[in-house]
Design brief:
The complex is a heterodimer of chains A (325) and B (645). By secondary structure, chain A is mainly alpha-helical. Chain A contains 16 helices and two strands. Chain A has a two-stranded antiparallel sheet. In chain A, helix 6 packs across helix 14, helix 12 packs antiparallel against helix 15 and helix 14 runs antiparallel to helix 15. Chain A is flat and about 75 Å long. The two termini of chain A are 36 Å apart. Chain B is elongated, with a radius of gyration of 37 Å. Chain B is built from 24 helices and no strands. The two termini of chain B are 51 Å apart. The chains are: A mainly alpha (325), B mainly alpha (645). At the A-B interface, helix 1, helix 2, helix 3, helix 4 and helix 6 of A face helix 1, helix 8, helix 12, helix 13 and helix 14 of B.
Chain lengths: 325, 645
């Protein structure tokens, strides 16, 4: 098998020097890259496989033996695999099912709304002439690298108390944004996600939309279509691949987010998404330790399904987001 | 079930409301071309709602049936009334063509609306006007307005009138104390304001067809971009500025303290500490690393001489340099302690190791059998949350007390390895024989390659035999793995039960516990680097590879002289992406150790300061330190964008 690597340097040697033993050693060595690859794959999979296997094991079994001794005797007949952990963690006390629903309540708006907003903005940046277009676009893209930490304190204040502005020099305070008591709700989380997602979304969609063929737009304009119509009739259908790519990206990012949810919701309310609930089980270090693997698997099940089903689009998103531009 | 329903309702309302707002805005500006007066009426209504909303929200305007406690609040009716008044005014202005009549419609309408507003203003907002500012402000701002108009070569009168109206607002409402005035004052103030605005609007020429179409076309860009800019402004730009301001204020964010937060944070020995820097140079890692770097560099320079280039890199020179740099860096990061050094350790390790491994796997998998399966499995951790990954690895790192069964994979291996190498078993003999065979095989290969002057292969095989020999030595002699030893003599000291394995408490033992956490992120991000590099390698033109082969280059030479330079921009992109991502790492330390045992990082320190200790100033300062540390990357992003546009 041809592999473009270090050890394949042996190829010219093989050509010049004979000997049956030598040839066997060389062919053995040239397979090493593939071995290394699969060894790495196995190492990479062990943690996830271990978690999955452990999630079916009882508390006693988990404490007595490593995961690969599944079904082995642990002394009291409790070693057999079962779904009890899932049953208990999903529907028992503090059911994770509710947290899954909260996650959905965050993820769906936080995915759909930024796509819509970013698609319009990306289209405008690509195809509508207006003053300051280039400058605004570069500014937006430069925000890609901003660490979210710089926004957390003021945003939480905004959600908790509404927006106020003290007019300088006159010392009068105006309330610009009403106190909707958003702190601790899923709304605060998806609003935040929407804002944070936009620079990347605009960047990704702009790369694609600005590359659409120009004559499509020109002929549509001649037919009397305006930008709104062109957007719906032409740009959206043509951009499905990149829209799919961003959807998966944003879905995984919001579903897996911990920092924003933890900050905006805190703990101890009934709006916690799955990641925060999972982290709090992990923080207990006690009674529910044996449920942790089942809980962790539940939290990753949906992302993994999406990942394996739509991997092609996800890869495209990763590539477009980092290679181009 | 209830939960499902309430979730559904929340989702539908959120998305529906956004859609209605957006489509409504488009329909609104569509009217500019179809029916101008309708556009003006809607615009008026929107302005009316905003103004009354602001006034009512700030408790300046109110309409209650009586002054009693339980009086019905009719303020909502007031909003509708204001919307209607403003809509009517807008429609009238839009349909009046005659110049003088426009002035009358504008002025009278403005005064009427102002008086209606004035009637509902609560006494606590009545301004106590003073004559001097009341005259000085309008005059001053009018002069500024006229000056600006002169600069822009537009109508001086309009500029001055705009200025005077704004100045009146400042002098009559912002400057005075509110609450001690009379109703006459508020009515007069508002009437003059309304008159100014109305006449200024009346001065504008009636809008013509081309202007309406221009407005409609231009508004489209605004409507398309505005939601994005509003969200970005509200969640990124304005909060970042506010954080910058908060970072120079005290604990509660109310008293100015200058750079004290920054000096406090950087002066904290738990955060930044260089006191033990001299110890770096005496660590084994530093010495070995430095030797490897120097050796690798000279090797590359020697080979470079042969082809007339300053250096010529290959696996045999780049490998040692990378390994040496990692060793030197680790010598620094394990000696110097503190949150900032931890953060740098994270950034360095994840960036170098994840991109190096990603590149290696991309190369190994390229054209290999089962490439896509192997790549998917390596890429899979990207779909798992950092929290989930932290938990997954907690099981890997699990340590149970000495003597009990180790259930964590790594400690199981470590303890059993210790048990194996100290004891006497068939397995131990088999492994030792295999190791010996491997060493002999590599030695034979080195010898054969040396005979046919394949020096690179010869050196490579000889070098890779060294670690095998080391392992064999540990098997024969002192043992390898977790072994209970007598602290005084270093002798193996088994428990009474015969147990000799000693587990590693991965998450607690300093300073390496930080690195065990780092491995979790490497596990996740290697897939990212691999996918990007894999695409880049496949993007290298096949003709280039062919041409280099025709010229007689080996696979290795082709890789280092053709592929690597071709994918150099990708290496830049992957490393900058990783640097930005790792700089703000939070979830993994938070979930796995919560920053204890010397594993804290900047983002977690910031979170604890701001949201646990409620020290807003220090939290903001830490957030800004994070921000400043990614500014170079932002600059790089902008420059790349500039080149692309």
């Amino acid at each position: 098998m041809a592999t473009r690597t270090e050890v394949s340097e042996t190829a010219p040697v093989r050509a010049s020097k004979g000997g049956a033993l030598g040839r066997r050693i060389y062919s053995f060595l040239s397979a090493i890259p593939t071995w290394i690859l699969w060894l790495l794959v196995v190492i990479w999979s062990i943690p996830s496989v271990g978690l999955l296997v452990n999630s079916f094991r009882t508390r006693d079994a988990q404490r007595a033996t490593p995961f690969w001794e599944i079904g082995g005797d642990v002394g009291n007949g409790l070693g057999a695999p079962s779904l009890d952990n899932y049953q208990e963690v999903l529907f028992g006390g503090n059911p994770l099912f509710d947290n899954l629903m909260n996650s959905l309540a965050i993820v769906i708006p936080a995915t759909v709304i930024p796509i819509a907003i970013a698609a319009f903005a990306a289209y405008a940046f690509a195809w509508i002439e207006f003053k300051g277009r280039e400058w605004l676009f570069i500014f937006t893209v430069s925000l890609l690298a901003i660490p979210l930490q710089t926004s957390l304190i003021p945003l939480l204040r905004l959600y908790a108390t509404g927006g106020q502005w003290t007019i300088p020099f006159f010392d009068k305070t105006v309330r610009l944004f009403p106190d909707l008591d958003l702190a601790g709700t899923v709304t605060a989380v998806w609003l935040t996600h929407t804002g944070f997602a936009l620079p990347f979304a605009i960047f990704l969609l702009h790369n694609y939309i600005s590359g659409l063929p120009k004559d499509v737009f020109e002929s549509a304009f001649i037919d009397g279509a305006d930008h709104f119509k062109i957007f719906w009739r032409l740009v959206l259908p043509l951009s499905t691949p990149v829209l799919a790519a961003f959807t998966i990206f944003q879905f995984l990012w919001t579903w897996n987010d911990y920092l924003i949810a933890l900050t905006m919701i805190g703990s101890g309310t009934d709006a916690l998404p799955i990641t925060v609930a999972l982290a709090s089980i992990a923080g207990e270090f006690g009674q529910r330790e044996h449920l942790l693997s089942a809980a962790a698997f539940i939290s990753t099940a949906l992302p993994l399904v999406v990942f394996f089903a739509l991997q092609r689009y996800f890869v495209r998103g990763v590539l477009a987001g980092s290679v181009k531009g | 079930m209830e939960k499902v329903v309430s979730t559904l309702i929340g989702v539908v309302v959120a998305i529906g409301a956004s859609a209605v707002l957006f489509i409504g805005a488009n329909k609104w500006f569509d009217q500019a071309r179809v029916r101008w007066w309708r556009f003006a009426a809607i615009t008026g209504a929107v302005i009316g709602v905003i103004i009354s909303g602001l006034l009512i929200g700030n408790r300046i305007m109110q309409w209650r049936t009586s002054t009693a406690e339980d009086a019905t609040d009719l303020s909502l009716v007031l909003v509708v009334l204001m919307a209607l008044l403003f809509a009517g005014w807008g429609a009238l202005l839009a349909t009046t063509e005659n110049r003088n009549r426009r002035l009358i419609v504008g002025g009278v309408g403005g005064v009427v609306i102002a008086l209606v507003i004035g009637a509902f203003i609560r006494p606590l907002a009545w301004p106590a006007m003073r004559i001097v500012p009341l005259i000085a402000w309008p005059l001053g701002v009018a002069a500024v307005g006229a000056g600006l108009a002169a600069l822009r070569k537009s109508d001086l009168v309009k500029g001055a009138l705009t200025g005077a109206t704004i100045g009146w607002f400042f002098g009559a409402f912002l400057e005075p104390t509110l609450g001690s005035g009379t109703q006459a004052e508020i009515l007069m103030g508002l009437a003059v304001l309304g008159l100014g605005v109305g006449i200024r609007l009346g001065l504008n020429p009636p809008s013509d067809r081309s202007g309406q179409e221009r407005l409609q076309a231009r508004s489209r860009a605004v409507i398309f971009v505005a939601p994005a800019l509003i969200f970005i402004g509200a969640t990124l730009v304005i909060p970042t500025i506010q954080t910058l301001i908060l970072s120079v204020f005290g604990t509660r964010g109310d008293e100015f303290v200058g750079f004290k937060n920054y000096t406090d944070v950087l002066g904290d020995p738990d955060i930044f500490n260089v006191s033990s820097w001299t110890d770096i140079f005496t660590t084994g890692m530093f010495v070995w690393g430095a030797l490897l770097i120097v050796g690798g560099y000279f090797f590359a320079r020697n080979k470079g001489k042969a082809i007339g280039a300053p250096t010529d890199w290959s696996g045999l020179s780049a490998g040692p340099v990378v390994l040496g740099s990692i060793l030197v860096a680790f010598a620094v990061f394990t000696t110097l302690r503190g949150v900032i050094w931890n953060n740098l350790w994270w950034v360095f390790s994840v960036t170098i190791i994840a991109s190096g491994l990603g590149l290696a796997i991309a190369v190994l998998a390229d054209r290999a059998k089962g490439e896509s399966v192997a790549k998917s499995l390596i890429f899979m951790p990207m779909a798992i949350s950092f929290v989930g990954a932290g938990i997954i690895w907690r099981f890997m790192y699990l340590a149970r007390p000495v003597g009990s069964n180790q259930t964590g994979v790594l400690n199981w291996l470590w303890v059993n390895l210790g048990q194996l190498t100290v004891g006497d078993s068939m397995l131990k003999t088999v492994i030792m024989v295999l190791l010996a065979l491997g060493i002999v095989g590599l030695g034979y290969l080195a010898y054969r390659s040396w005979r046919v002057e394949q020096n690179a292969v010869a050196i490579g095989s000889a070098v890779s035999a060294l670690p095998l020999a080391w392992v064999l030595w540990r098997f024969v002699g002192p043992g390898l793995g977790g072994i209970l030893r007598d602290p005084a003599t270093g002798e193996v000291a088994p428990l009474a039960s015969g147990v000799v394995g000693e587990p590693v408490i991965f998450l607690v033992d300093q300073p390496w516990n930080t690195f065990w956490l780092i491995i979790v992120l490497i596990w996740i991000q290697t897939g990212f680097a691999m996918v990007v590099f894999s695409a880049a390698i496949k993007g290298v033109p096949a003709e280039l590879i062919e041409a280099s082969k025709v010229d007689g280059a080996t696979e290795s030479e082709t890789f280092w002289r053709v592929t690597i330079p071709q994918i150099a921009p990708t290496i830049g992109v992957v490393t900058t992406t990783l640097i930005v991502l790792v700089m703000k790492v939070f979830d993994i330390p938070k979930v796995m150790t919560n920053g204890q045992f010397g594993t804290n990082v900047l983002a977690n320190e910031m979170w604890q300061k701001a949201f646990t200790e409620l020290n807003i100033g220090a939290g903001a300062a830490l957030a800004m330190i994070l921000f400043f540390s990614v500014v170079p990357v932002m600059y790089y992003n902008i420059r790349r964008q500039r080149e692309a546009v």
